[in-house]
Amino acid sequence: MSVAGHAPPPFFKRGPAPLARLAFFVTLALLLLVADLRFRTLEVARMAVATVLWPLQKAVLLPVEGAGEAGNYFSNLSSLQLENAELRKRQLAQANLLLRQTHLEDENRRLRALLIMQERLDAPARAAEILYAARDPFSRRIIIDHGLTHGLENGQAVIDELGVVGQITRAFPLTSEVTLLTDKNQLIPVQVARNGLRAVVAGAGSGAMELKFLPANADVLPGDTLVTSGLDGIYLPGLPVAKVISIDRNSSFSFARIECEPLAGVERHGQVLVLGKRIAPELPEEPKEPGKKPARGRKATK
């Protein structure tokens, strides 16, 4: 049997040599490049391939784009949080400035009102600032920043731009203790501004006051304003004291129960006026009767 009879079947036949195939495909590629460059012959094929491959490219790029978007999101979130914190700080600072400005405007307005009140008074007055409230829970007292060294003394009246605040009851070298008109031990002679009816108003100890010793049929109405009568020699006449808020005319009692509220900013304001003591006018001398001699003592005789 010859060797030619043992040739491999067609299934196992090898094609052209690898070098020949390489040369063929290189030549084909060069021809296609030249043809595409000169005549644009592959433009349609390129567009078709790009169209077919675009969804695949988009799907491949999705994770990359998602990672980039996530990074941008967290970066923007961090910057927004920092910016938000900074804006909150600015807002708090501006709110504090606004509150301080409002407080200063209110204080300036009250000081102007005190100055106007001081100009209207017929007695000398000195401005003072409230330092704090006394620690005694059973009394209504405040401490002001003026004392004996500033010329203050016990018994001087204390007012603000709205009315009577109280009276100095204890003067120290640098400070003074003021008993508020709402204290239970405070009594102020007043009169009804509407009709001049005189009465006495007393502190109730809890921010309220009570009009004392008026009969049930007294001409007093809710809303009436009570002003100082000046009969005690401490308060100037005509200073606003309180306003009537309720009246209980019970016939079983001798006197009406009349509740009032102070007009002054007893628990609110920080500046007050201390009025100088009123100087009582000198009484005229009694006229001497003519011809009347002063009595002489009888001489002692043995």
Write structural notes for this entry.
- The chain has two helices and twelve strands; from the N terminus they run H-H-E-E-E-E-E-E-E-E-E-E-E-E.
- The protein is of the alpha+beta class.
- The protein folds into two domains: 19-120; 125-275, Rod shape-determining protein MreC, domain 1 (Thrombin, subunit H, Beta Barrel).
- It has a six-stranded antiparallel beta barrel. The protein has a six-stranded antiparallel barrel with strand order 6-7-8-11-10-9.
- The longest helix has 78 residues, at 43-120.
- The radius of gyration is 51 Å and the shape is rod-shaped.
- The chain starts with 17 loop residues before the first helix and ends in a 27-residue tail after the last strand.
SSE topology sketch:
Layout: H1 18-39, H2 43-120, E1 125-133, E2 141-144, E3 157-159, E4 164-171, E5 176-180, E6 187-192, E7 198-203, E8 209-212, E9 225-228, E10 240-248, E11 257-262, E12 271-275
Antiparallel strand pairs: 1-2, 1-12, 2-5, 3-4, 3-12, 4-5, 6-7, 6-9, 7-8, 8-11, 9-10, 10-11
